[in-house]
Amino acid sequence: MVKLKEFSLLEGEEVLQQIEGDAYNDSPNPIMRLIAAVVRIIWLILGVRFRAYIIVTNMRIVEITKKTILWGLLPGHTVVLTLNKKSIQSVGYEMASSWFIFRKFYFLLANASGAICITYDGNEESLRKACMEVDKIVAAAN
């Protein structure tokens, strides 16, 4: 689990799950992934990095989107949102495939202000566990 300086625990709070995702590409299409990989390599050479995180605790859900410049020396753009558990309408995941063998997994969360979709870096089982943790928190709030 990555330690983020943008996130600090509240009193009595513990992290249940952290979802880390790629913010470069959200397509399962291998041609689009190849193009995004080339762009990503160019950006990495220039020191630009995009990442998205969902942190699930026993008290809240936090979304963090980070863009860093010059290999992390300069903050480029950071968005930190604390999501109200009662405003979350649905939680789930999606699997998209292209050409029968290329798969991508996505974490989905819909709340009153819109939908969040993060390209998930892990496997289907860990994504399913993360969704169950979010479900437990949302169900307890309602």
Describe this structure in words.
The chain is α+β, with helices and mostly antiparallel strands and about 140 residues long. Helices cover about 25% and strands about 45% of the residues. The protein has helices at about 30-45, 125-140; strands at about 15-20, 50-55, 60-70, 75-85, 90-100, 100-110, 115-120. It has a seven-stranded antiparallel beta sheet with strand order 4-3-2-1-7-6-5. The relative contact order is 0.19.
Radius of gyration: 16 Å
* Count of runs of 4 or more consecutive helical residues: 2
Mean pLDDT: 79
Distance between the termini: 28 Å
Residue windows where pLDDT falls under 50 for at least 5 positions: none
Helix fraction, binned, reads: 10-25%
The outline comes out as globular
In percent terms, what proportion of residues is strand? over 45%
Going by helix content, strand content and strand pairing, the class is alpha+beta
Largest sheet properties: 7 strands, antiparallel
Task: Based on the model shown, name its key terms.
2 helices; 25% helix; 7-stranded antiparallel sheet; single chain; 45% strand; globular; 142 residues; 7 strands; alpha+beta
Summarize the model shown.
This protein has 142 residues and is an alpha+beta fold. It contains two helices and seven strands.
